[in-house]
Design brief:
Blueprint (H helix, E strand, L loop, with lengths): L2 E2 L7 E3 L2 E5 L7 E6 L54 H6 L8 H9 L1 E8 L2 E8 L6 E5 L3 E3 L2 E3 L4 E9 L5 E8 L4 E7 L7 E4 L1
Parallel strand pairs: 1-5
Antiparallel strand pairs: 2-3, 3-4, 4-13, 5-6, 6-7, 8-9, 10-11, 11-12
Length: 201
């Protein structure tokens, strides 16, 4: 893989963040970086589903385990399938109209882009390239995930939460991509620490 420098791919500045128009059918715009990231290839912060305070990996005060999860007991999402904005990490941390993508917006991204594993400034990740205009793209770094006191998969896969709860109360939907070039829409335990990527629309 070539060590590439990510080109400027945004044509819109929204509340201080770069919004990328990938010509998706719904008109959804995707941020060019993860919540808490200083650049598109930076990993950013990790969040449990429904929590708005992010952490840089596993720390002494946050191990991303089931017993730490704030919705474990008295779960207000037992009868809801979507995060409220007050519990949306993109909305709370980015402001404006930014919010976490829904399950449908993640599937739309996968269906309407080409996918290519790249190395950007030393960080491996997946480039999602518009099928309508290949000059437009976003880069999702392989930030791995945090689970039960450990940090897994850095440089091998990336996971970004959606705002949609799975049909199972314990699970949330997410975008997954990996070093083998695969990308898919899947789900995982809501207490795990994953990346968050904001969208508009």
């Amino acid at each position: 893989d070539k060590n590439k420098v990510l080109p400027f791919v945004s044509n819109l500045d929204a509340n201080g963040y770069n919004a990328v128009d990938l010509d998706l059918p719904s008109g959804t715009l995707w941020c060019d970086r993860n919540v808490g990231a200083k650049s598109p290839e930076d990993y950013g912060l990790y969040f449990a589903w429904g929590e708005t305070e992010g952490y840089v990996g596993v720390t002494e005060d946050k191990s991303f385990c089931e017993t730490d999860y704030k919705w474990l007991r008295n779960d207000k999402y037992s009868n809801k399938e979507m995060l409220d904005l007050e519990d949306d990490a993109a909305y709370v941390n980015m402001g404006g109209d930014w919010h976490m993508p829904t399950d449908k917006q993640i599937q739309e991204l996968i269906d309407n882009t080409f996918h290519d594993v790249e190395v950007v400034n030393g960080k491996r990740g997946m480039r999602y390239i518009s099928k309508k205009d290949t000059s437009k793209s976003i880069f999702v770094p392989f930030a791995g995930d945090c689970n039960d006191g450990y940090h897994y998969g850095v440089g091998y896969y990336g996971i970004c939460w959606s705002s949609s709860r799975s049909s199972s109360v314990d699970l949330g939907y997410y975008l997954y991509c990996d070093n083998n070039g695969g990308t898919l829409f899947s789900y995982g335990y809501r207490y795990c620490g994953f990346s968050v990527r904001g969208v508009l629309g």
